[in-house]
């Protein structure tokens, strides 16, 4: 199998690549992974090929699966007007390059898996949200929606698309947890606001496992039969005018937690106190519009994965933290 990954060197792409290589090596199957990069001088990891976007525009190489993960971190800095433009461009430009490749290449990929986030649903408090739920319009929704709609254009060329709406990914190597380690280890970690906001999270191990599961389901044809069987009420298929299969998956654990519970669990895991609280007005002052990511909750359910039979390795936050090594 040949896989092309945009954002392959990132927090999720690198973990996905490592796990795929390990599985295929164990099964004595052929696997070739190529990372797209804008930096031609980037160091190439073992067993990974590198390709620049300029090379992608000329290559005759074909790929079975394209995994589109490129995009700047939405919580990395305040949402100024300029930052919002950067967040959108960092997602749109790589996706446009992939679409151009798909359009011109005579051998189409069997599947495009494209990233998104649970921000698509907007702020909806503790209401349970599945793949068939509606949305509330805010910046996070508009960002995700534009990214998703662009990726779905691959269906115009007969390429099935799977959209992955990812929650807060838990692993000490990066993401939200990686940023919180220092204050928590110093004993100054604490809840945000009133701590009642719901956090929809997923362990990085399960994010990788679910991504591989989705790919295998689509390539085996199991996704087709399941989604059109009418056996479940959560329809995660997207209605495309050309009838090419497109589906959306929530990549979250089945057991969301409040920020209060998250704070206590991380403190217990690190054996540190969690007495501090950052009041909502201070969070709004510090982070501006971006504070919605911290103080407004989302309860997002991975219904499509559960219906398809994916078994979570770490369905609870305690399990996700247990055994993780802090560097």
Automatic annotation (TrEMBL):
Belongs to the NAD(P)-dependent epimerase/dehydratase family. SDR39U1 subfamily. PANTHER family: EPIMERASE FAMILY PROTEIN SDR39U1, SUGAR NUCLEOTIDE EPIMERASE RELATED. This is TIGR01777 family protein. SUPFAM superfamilies: NAD(P)-binding Rossmann-fold domains. Residues 3-223 form the NAD-dependent epimerase/dehydratase domain. It holds the Pfam family DUF1731. Residues 279-322 form the DUF1731 domain.
